[in-house]
Amino acid sequence: MNRSQADIPKYLWDARQAAERVRRFTAGRTLDQYLQDDMLRSAVERQFQIIGEALGSVRRIDSVMASTIPDASRIIAFRNVVVHAYARIDHDLVWRVVQNDLEALIATLSSLLDQETN
After folding, report:
1. Residue 40 burial (10 A CB sphere; 0-12, 13-18, 19+)
2. 36, 65 in Cβ contact below 8 A?
3. How far is the C-alpha of 28 from the C-alpha of 107, rounded, in Å?
4. pLDDT tens, position by position, 10-58
């Protein structure tokens, strides 16, 4: 296993931790609360930035593994929007992702992390 390959579990762990933070930050919140709370939006966006950066690193190391993560390309693209085009963030879309896709992402990352560490 080369050094880059050895880094994959760290990136998967970072992404999962960030996704779990998003889940914790948004638990019990509504879309209206999310839209009105700039600190919450900033925290969620930062965690998605971490997820996107980590998945981008996984993709550079092992594109086959990255392709098993649903919407990895979209997550990485969203990271780029947060970093480079923050004025174009679609907050309604972010909230839908949190509500509809976050649990599946956490499960996928957990499964991949289990495979990598066993």
Report:
1. middle
2. no
3. 20
4. 999 999 999 999 999 999 999 999 999 999 999 999 999 999 999 999 9
Helix (H, G, I), strand (E, B), or coil: what is residue 103?
helix
CB 88 within 8 A of CB 55: no
DSSP for 29-97, written as a single string: --HHHHHH-HHHHHHHHHHHHHHHHHHHHHHHH-HHHHHTSTTHHHHHHHHHHHHH-GGG--HHHHHHH
| Residue-range domain boundaries for the chain | 3-117
Q: What is the pTM of this model?
A: 0.92
